[in-house]
């Protein structure tokens, strides 16, 4: 964030640091459908990353045998990063769920196509690193 309170996009060095320091990732809006982007990101990160991944979706119980949790509050750990695949209008509610965790995650990552300046400002003001409109799978491959 700038001194005027405006959110600014993380630079390449910031992204590298975020990706390197992250150990646990919750994928909010995970899908069991291989045609959905969240499935592709999960599958790629599961195969090639150092992350411990947690799937969050109240409408499914598992993805390929990996348990899915109904909410962030139901996870057995507080993740370092929350990677979001939800509709734009649901982003404020996701942020509220993230901020309710104790301790708080370090990073809120809004997947490609998701952008909400108010969510970014509010998240950053609460101490979160906020990344918007970027694909975690692509950036992990680029910066690892």
From TrEMBL:
UniProt cross-references to Gene3D superfamilies, sorted A to Z: NAD(P)-binding Rossmann-like Domain
InterPro entries: CoA-bd, NAD(P)-bd_dom_sf
Coiled coil: none
Sequence ranges assigned to domain CoA-binding in this UniProt record: 18-114
Protein name from the UniProt record: CoA-binding protein
Protein source organism: [Mycobacterium] manitobense
């Amino acid at each position: 964030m700038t001194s005027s309170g405006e959110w600014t996009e993380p630079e390449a060095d910031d992204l590298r640091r975020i990706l390197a320091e992250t150990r646990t990732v919750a994928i909010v809006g995970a899908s069991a459908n291989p045609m959905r982007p969240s499935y592709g990101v999960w599958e790629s990160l599961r195969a090639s990353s150092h992350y411990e991944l947690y799937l969050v979706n109240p409408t499914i119980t598992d993805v390929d045998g990996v348990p899915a949790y109904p909410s962030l509050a139901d996870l057995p750990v507080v993740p370092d990063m929350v990677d979001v695949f939800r509709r734009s209008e649901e982003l404020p509610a996701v942020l509220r769920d993230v901020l309710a965790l104790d301790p708080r995650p370090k990073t809120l990552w809004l997947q490609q196509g998701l952008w909400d300046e108010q969510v970014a400002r509010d998240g950053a003001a609460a101490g979160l690193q906020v990344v918007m409109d970027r694909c975690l799978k692509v950036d992990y491959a680029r910066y690892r």
